[in-house]
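Per your request, structure below.
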């Protein structure tokens, strides 16, 4: 059952933030998550080693996680688990069973993951994932004690048609589970047209969407979503990180390509030093 199915009809740009939000935002620790996608062999672990070393020295004021391919999760946990967290890039909603090639949330937790990305636009477009399946996966993550990172974002056609807030609102509304809390869920806004393209929305466009997402989350029963971290993702790099991460209601970043190289990833993390 959608939680707030008509929220975007009520949303007006520039309207006051929900009460109490300033305090929540002030106490919220941002997080930067690297999404390696289908990249990385054992040799790539040296990049994680460099990031871990940097984190031990610099200690930015944010949490840091890396979602490597499943083949490397255990090695990341073993080599850098004390310094950064590991996450999966997807999970099945069942704990076990005849699902060849899939990985359950319990299996990710078992090999040391703390997070799992669900509903990334590449899963939605290349694997036909629906909002309903994303919601089941998020629930499975929570059942296994993982933090779900639920991704939403509009295509370029949807933005050009002026439908961004409606599309993102509907995706989120139908993807977030009823058991959402600020502890078990993170939302990532990733415009599809910004992923891997080098293009980014303007800070005003980011501000508008993140404010709308915050408003939707604040309507979750019991206001459970008010403290949920909202990440921006899509072509984040060292040169634009500070600006994007400085936008209101941006509580961190989901980083693809630039998370593969330690220099670039730490260049982004520098925004929190
Ligand atoms: P990108 O990818 O940083 O390479 O644009 C982001 C993502 O897909 O999470």
């Amino acid at each position: 059952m959608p939680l707030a199915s008509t929220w975007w009809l009520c949303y007006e740009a520039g309207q006051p933030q929900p009460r109490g939000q300033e305090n929540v935002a002030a106490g919220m620790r941002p997080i930067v998550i690297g999404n390696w996608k289908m990249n990385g062999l054992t040799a790539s672990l040296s990049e994680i080693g460099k990031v871990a070393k940097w984190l031990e020295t610099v200690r930015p004021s944010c949490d840091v996680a890396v979602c490597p391919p499943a083949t490397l999760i255990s090695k990341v946990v073993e080599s850098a688990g004390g310094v950064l967290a590991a996450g999966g890039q997807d999970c099945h909603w069942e704990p076990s069973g005849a699902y060849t090639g899939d990985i359950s949330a319990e299996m990710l937790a078992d090999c040391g993951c703390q997070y799992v990305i669900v509903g990334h636009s590449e899963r939605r477009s290349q694997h036909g994932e629906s909002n309903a399946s994303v919601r089941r996966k998020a629930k499975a993550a929570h059942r296994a004690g993982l933090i779900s990172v639920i991704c939403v974002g509009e295509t370029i056609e949807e933005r050009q048609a002026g439908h961004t807030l409606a599309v993102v609102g509907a995706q989120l509304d139908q993807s977030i589970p009823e058991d959402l809390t600020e502890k078990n869920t993170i939302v990532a806004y990733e415009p599809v047209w910004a992923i891997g393209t080098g293009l980014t929305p303007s800070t005003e466009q980011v501000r508008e969407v993140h404010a709308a997402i915050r408003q939707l989350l604040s309507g979750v029963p019991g206001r459970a979503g008010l403290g949920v971290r909202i990440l921006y993702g899509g072509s984040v790099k060292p040169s634009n990180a500070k600006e994007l991460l400085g936008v209101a209601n941006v509580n961190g970043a989901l980083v693809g390509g630039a998370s593969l190289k330690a220099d670039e990833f730490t260049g982004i993390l520098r925004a929190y030093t």
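The chain has a mean pLDDT of 92.

Regards,
D.
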